[in-house]
Amino acid sequence: MNNKQRWMGGVVLLGGGILLAALLLKGKEEIHQNQAEPQLVEQVQQSNKSNEAEMIQLQPLTVDVETEKRLLEEQKRSREKAVAEQEARAAEFLATQQQAEAEAARKAAEEYAAMNTRRTGANQSSDNIPPELVEDEKIKQKRIAEEKLAAQKKLDQQKVTQLKADDVKKDAEKKRQAELDRQAEDKKKTEAEAKQKANEKLKAEEKRKADEKLKSEEKRKADEKLKSEEKRKAEAKKKAEADKARNLLENGDKQWMVQVALAVNEANADAVAAKLRSKGFKVTKSPTSKGIRIMVGPSKDRETADAARKKIAADASLGMKSAWVIDWVPLDKRN
Known about the structure:
alpha+beta; four-stranded antiparallel sheet
């Protein structure tokens, strides 16, 4: 009986040692896996944060509205692609975690089944299972549940973070679109104002040109009218002088005149006559076959005419020292 008890005790110790070794190996694998999983989660989170930062970062506004619309479409496609990649990584991580949990549960079940098999083969009652093993299994299941809950919380947190990031991006896109619309409206307003100013300037220029043209036309008409009036007055004056000279020549008695010059044309005659008139002399012009005779007078006697001649010759400003006195006989009294 003692030998049998010793043998059974040895079997129990051997089985317990094997189970303990298996649990230690399993614990080491789980510790390694638990260390790897947070690193994977951290890498996924860092990748998500990097993608979010890249998507949230807004590019500077460009002047071209069409270019901004194209950039918004490209950002939208990039954001959708990044979200799809993040969801795929989250699903892959969840699948990996579920596979690890299933593998751990399978191994635990296999170990538990092997332990039961060993117990059955050794005719050992279930009451002889050490309490620490049962306690370790409960701790393990609790730890697995806590890890699963933590992973689910992390996934939920990632979803919340993603939703917040999406909201931020949507707000940023709305602000950008509003800014683009405002810039487009300002550009249209500026172009409309510039066009209006250009039209007003063009109208003002046209009005100025029209006013200048009207003033020029009025001035031209006034000048023409003035020239016409001056010409009329000059012609009337010439006619009056000619009539006077003709009257003296045809109807007057013999008179004394001071002949001062013989002009070759009417212009020279008018110039000489103007000088004499400016000095107060009475001037008479008479056309001849050799030119236009310019005379001062008439005087009733030779003495008066000679006195006028001396006065004309003494005036250096006139320059008519060669003046002489002639007796003037009207045409009808000449032989």
